[in-house]
What we know:
Blueprint: H1 2-10, H2 17-27, H3 35-42, H4 47-62, E1 66-70, E2 73-76, E3 82-89, E4 95-98, E5 106-108, E6 121-128, E7 135-144, E8 149-156, E9 160-165, E10 175-178, E11 190-197, E12 206-214, H5 219-229, H6 238-245, H7 253-256, E13 260-261, E14 266-271, E15 280-286, E16 292-299, H8 310-318, E17 322-323, E18 328-329, H9 334-340, E19 348-358, E20 365-376, E21 379-382, H10 383-392, H11 396-404, H12 423-446, E22 455-460, E23 466-472, H13 476-497, E24 507-509, H14 515-525, H15 537-550, H16 557-567, E25 572-574, H17 598-611, H18 619-653, E26 659-667, E27 671-676, E28 682-686, E29 695-698, E30 703-706, E31 712-714, E32 718-727, E33 732-740
Parallel strand pairs: 5-7, 13-20, 14-21
Antiparallel strand pairs: 1-2, 3-4, 3-6, 4-5, 6-7, 8-9, 8-11, 9-10, 11-12, 14-15, 15-16, 16-19, 17-18, 19-20, 22-23, 24-25, 26-27, 26-32, 27-28, 29-30, 30-31, 32-33
Amino acid sequence: MTRKKRRRNSSATINNLTERIMKILKEDHHKTFNYKQICAKLDVNDTSSRNMVIKKLAQLKAKDQIIEPERGKYQLIPNRNYHTGILDVSGKGGGYVVVPDMEQDIYVPPHHLNKALNGDEVEVYVYRQRRNKKHEGEIVKILQRKTDEFVGVIEIQKKFAFVHTSEGNKMYTDVFVPLNKIGKAAHGDKVVVKLEDWPEKADSPFGKVTKVLGKPGEHNTEIHSILAQYGLPYEFPEEVENYANKIDTSIKKEEIAKRRDMRDTLTFTIDPKDAKDFDDALSFKKLDNGNYEIGIHIADVSHYLVPGTILDDEAYERATSVYLVDRVVPMLPEILSNGACSLRPHEEKYTFSAVFEMDPASAKIHNQWFGRTVTYSDARFAYEEAQAIIEQNVSSSAVENKLYNNSIPAEVSLTGKTYQVDDTLVEATLELDRLAKIMRRQRMKDGAISFDKVEVKFDLDEDANPTGVFFKTSKDANKLIEEFMLLANRKVSEFIGKKTPKHTFVYRIHDEPNDEKLAALEKVIGKFGYKLDLKDRKSTTNSMNRLLADVQGKKEQNLVDTLAIRTMSKAVYSTENIGHYGLAFDYYSHFTSPIRRYPDVMVHRLLQHYLDGGKSASEEEYEEKCKHSSAREQLATSSERDSIKYMQVKFMQDHKDEEFLGVISGVTEWGIYVEIISNKCEGMVRLRDIKGDHYEFDQESYSIIGQRTKQQITLGDEVIVKVKEADLVRKHLDFHLIGVKE
């Protein structure tokens, strides 16, 4: 028996030995391996197989495919063909690795993805480089998964289950789940599945169901699915709620004594009519020298949020509140977000303030002060109320008549029960508006870009069903608040940023737009007869503002606004200040919304630390926190966008028999995207569904062209469409094309 075994081993072969050795060396191309280490990775331990490996290594070295930098240690030949980037999986299978310092993305065919998933940070080996065509490569290593949790619908069979994920074409595989790991999931449930393993020879990863979300299509299931898809929580852990509820939120004399007392200064808030967390207020006071004292008062969240506590850890992990179409998922528990930290009318509150002495004629700042305060809000305005004062420029009695005699909408009313509009408040509102307009004009002159994109909002019934669509636009009252918040943010960051030596701080930075994106935007808007002047920064910003003003009220406005915003770089948090391009500020930070943004909490802490004479904080520590906050912000933005898409689909489900006028907002090789003008809902008309001709995509003209009729349907054309399918689970609308408007 022993002799037979030896004969079999001596004649054994290792299949695909060259490829398997090269794969080992590629995966860790920076390291060297001896033959024993390679044998261990190949899981071979008999003498014959080891000799084969030794022989093969010698052959590969002789062919100059590998090197031997040290005796008996082998390594892949170093070259510049290895790159690190983020994988973007395409709808056709395969994907592209986006490498920051490369002009071209690297195409990766489906068979070379090697278990990498969309958004993963990967190392890619480029095996084909072409001057004018796409580079091609193979993923050799997954450096970091974007996520290991996915949302999908579970299909339970006799001996196992699969979760079909909701990621669409971006997730090219289902997740295999053993029956002992499905938890309480029932067939057809929407679930969260966590990846646990992906065996080398398995087509699909193995996972475990961690949460059952409910039945697909049900409202709460879909909203919770959106949050789960981006790893966002929708409730606080019980221990965090308990901790928050035990915080002493009373206003104490000994604490007031440590602060600047501004309770006697006229102070009020202006917020959306349905807001509950009022994190900013304005105060107004005339000084004896004729100047104004303007206070921007911000909820002092850092007074209650103590570093190192479970409450602070939870707030940091969340990093931001999430504003979905039917609810807010707050960064802080309600006792703080809507209670102790909310600057509600007729209540004393701890605040962190930026106070400015301003020239009433020019809005020039003569003096500034930053520090902790205690304030008392005399009144609470909704934006509509402040807007009524600004538009009418009326006396207090006229404002009262408008509010109480139903000459403006009934839901617009003063929140304070005993508060009466008086001339002092009217004057303060009008003067603040006038100063805000001076500051805004100066910003525009300095090169700021004015993005006033229309926001889509829904009227919802008590069951969160959409009954109507309306558009939210920014008016004078909104811009009043915006300008004073910008002022506080700019001056706080300037105050710290100009200190010498350098002090670590959290900045909100915005880089200049990419030249290629600007050129692409110019090409698209040329279809509508618009132009950009890209000669230098000033001419670019001036022509961009002119473009945004010219499209106001036009059918192409939302399309152009969206494309212009996409042209811009993303604003992020960083300890390295490069300024804010869009606002034309050399220094900018986020100081004004600590109830809903953790970076603002960090700014408050650092500002107070430096006011107290503290040394510069750790740049490395705060840079890590900045990166975390930027990443969480992006996830929140994506979830908010998905919730709007979901509600648009839900709204259109009840309008399947209606025809709508829309504008073509995108053209691709598989179909045209159409945005309905009356409600901004966007859907697709697939090329295969267009009757009467066979249409093909023409990339140069952003159009589709009929092969028989030569009819050209192009970006910006107005068309008549009807709903073909409204898929709530996929958050997708398909349209029938009824006709093209002449």
